[in-house]
Amino acid sequence: MKPETALLELSVMNATYDKHDFTDTVVDAIKRGIPPELVTRLEELWKKTKVVAGEVVNIGKIIVAKIMEFLKNNPGMSLGIALGAALGAMVSLIPLLGPLIAPLAAVVAAIYGGLVGTSIDDGDVSASLMASAISLANKFLKLFADIINSVASYWNDK
């Protein structure tokens, strides 16, 4: 992408997300089942700004909005990850062994839940976990590319 195109795209995104309020984002995220602890940690990122070509760009708002958009477009994956994290929390309640295996159980259950949720989002519940993993990876890489492209002009200016 040419620097001029990246700068234009970044300016459009900045104008789009400039009026967004973090409180609305928090409420929307909590309604979607995202843990409040995770959402409140995004506030520091939300506040980040950079000056690009003489314009103050709300880089943090753009990144958080893109992440929320990704979660909104993949509700099954979000639900699966939340259920996996809840399962990990329940495992921690098992006497003696729970605290030892809870971190592993939470990670495995969240990944598995995310994969199953992705297959539900794709409309193919019978899909293999490998196909779901590939689909999830594609979606995540597209999100990552969108975020990188949105800040590309900043890095080109440096």
Briefly characterize the structure.
The protein is built from eight helices and two strands. The chain has 158 residues and is mainly α. It has one domain.
Question: What can you tell me about this protein's structure?
Answer:
Helices cover 76% and strands 4% of the residues. The chain is mainly alpha-helical. It has one domain. It has a two-stranded antiparallel sheet with strand order 1-2. Strand 1 and strand 2 (55-57) form a beta hairpin. Helix 2 runs antiparallel to helix 3 (36-46) and helix 5 runs antiparallel to helix 6. The longest helix is centred in the C-terminal third of the chain and has 24 residues, at 98-121. The model has no long low-confidence stretch (mean pLDDT 76).
